[in-house]
Amino acid sequence: MASKKKKKDKSQPRRPKVNLMAGIPRPKPIDLYTSVEIPDQVREYPFYGAWLMEGWEDRGITPVVVARRQADDDNIIFGMYMVDLFCLGVKDALWKGDLNSKQFNRQLPQLCGDMPEPCEVSLAHEVIYGSIDFARKYGFEPHRDFRKAGLILDPPETLSWKHKLEFGKDGKPLFIPGPYDNARQILNQLKRTAGEGNYNALMMLNGPDDL
């Protein structure tokens, strides 16, 4: 006869969960929005600049902002890509255009968690495309809005890949769950695609209840 499952003793106080990432600054949530149609000739527009979030290499997740100057009216169009370098690739994407330089510069700190760090346009591209390539090895595709927001970028085949970036952590995917991630689904996928022992996950100290 099958044994009955032992019920949890609810009279015992629960241990508080400890967030191992509590001491590490993370990008602030922003209101994601899109506006304007992306012109067919957007890749002919000159670059205005590119930015990451300060300390991006240690955090493993960073907004990447790439902006171009619109040739017809000198306004700015930009794409913002939320990039997880450790595991999931491009987790979100947006674009906005028809901003003058003052409007764009006012929004830039919000886009980069109040810590925008200018970078080479080529580095911004390699962070984005390199993270996508890494994530795809484990079955993770970029956010659906990247299909449009990515038009602001140069295509990946034009890159020189001079920055020699490393993705993952210590040679393996490292999953650090965000507020909108389905942790169970992602971990199950890593088990299938990477295999036990070939990935790491930084979770609550005593594990979330739904895993």
Describe this structure in words.
- This protein has 211 residues and is α+β, with helices and mostly antiparallel strands.
- The protein has 5 helices and 7 strands, in the order E-H-E-E-E-H-E-H-H-E-H-E.
- Helix content is 22%, strand content 20%.
- The longest helix has 16 residues, at 121-136.
- The strands form 2 sheets. Strands 4-3-2-1-5 form a 5-stranded antiparallel β-sheet.
- It folds into 2 domains: 25-157, no CATH class; 169-211, no CATH class.
Topology at a glance:
Elements lengths: L46 E7 L2 H4 L1 E9 L6 E9 L4 E11 L1 H11 L4 E3 L2 H16 L9 H4 L24 E2 L7 H11 L6 E2 L10
Parallel strand pairs: 6-7
Antiparallel strand pairs: 1-2, 1-5, 2-3, 3-4
Helical region count?
A: 5
Biggest β-sheet: count, sense, barrel? Answer: 5 strands, antiparallel
Estimated structural class: alpha+beta
Report the count of strand segments: 7
Low-confidence stretches: 8-26, 28-32, 205-211
Give the topology string: H per helix, E per strand. EHEEEHEHHEHE
Shape: elongated
- What is the averaged pLDDT score? 85
Summarize the structure.
This protein is of the alpha+beta class. The chain has two domains: about 25-155, no CATH class; about 170-210, no CATH class. The protein is about 20% helix and about 20% strand.
Short descriptors:
211 residues, alpha+beta, 2 domains, 5-stranded antiparallel beta sheet, two-stranded parallel sheet, 7 strands, 22% helix, elongated
